[in-house]
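Entry type: protein chain
Record version: 2
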Amino acid sequence: MSSGRAGRFVIAGVCALLGACASGRGEVVFDLSDPAGDVRLEHPRHPGVGQGTFDIERVTLRRAGSRWVLEATFAEPVRALTDVRLGQDFAEPIWPQTIDVYLDVTPGRGHVEALPGRGVRVSAAEAWDRALVVSSIADLDADDVVFAQTIAARGRTLVATFAGDAVPAGVRGALVLVLATSPSGDGRVRPVAPGGVCHVWDDQRCTLAGAGPPILDASAPIEASRPVALSYREGSRPDPVKVPIVFVRGRLVGAAPVGAGDADKGQLATLYDAAGQPIASAVVLDRVGDTVTLEVVGEVGVEGAREVVFTDAR
């Protein structure tokens, strides 16, 4: 992880920042809405933060001239936190929200694990190719991640711009996660742990209360231990080829028949139940003939696993 720095936000002049307010909307990659009042976790009391601070209602990604614009609207006005200590002699204002946007571009390829500190995975069929991150602290060193160049507030909306090459052509699906920015946490996001009164934005007092991963809100349901689903345009959700599971022995799972070259040692996969819902991730351990043995990732029960989908994860 590289050294962090903030200073990426602008308080005023959103139209000048975008350079496109008068020119209308450009190409829209996605426009997602999310129910109000569905924040999963509770943040300790802080003068500048309420539950609505992280309650996302709508997210859009569109082109504006030579750049891309992400607009995230929350239930409460977006306010910066002042004098957040990022080091012993270094304090700056930051936005309390960190926003991840995961984009699925190439069928059957991509990353299954979310970024560090997020604690979730997506299914193999919906693996992501590019992650856009809106954060005051551009300090995450990971593959296929692009940070916002600028961030500004407009009422209840956080507006971020990205370089013209940040969004690949042919985006199929998207997942949006809302987290709490941390000066020093894993992936620079706030963990879930016992917390107290949040007079200052530190990791000792400013933890999140609740259960599961440290995601306050998202564009898809967050269920314990299960892969998170991306959103797709109507009729475009992936319909992957699934391989039957022939045995389950504790954390070991066998699948067959698997064609030559379809699954290699170390390759990731997603297990599905009889209803066709993803229930767990697994990694390929070995192969004998057309049968592949996998080990389940994480502490999840897979007795109901019926099928598996492999991904060319990178």
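Comment: The first strand starts at residue 9 and ends at 10.
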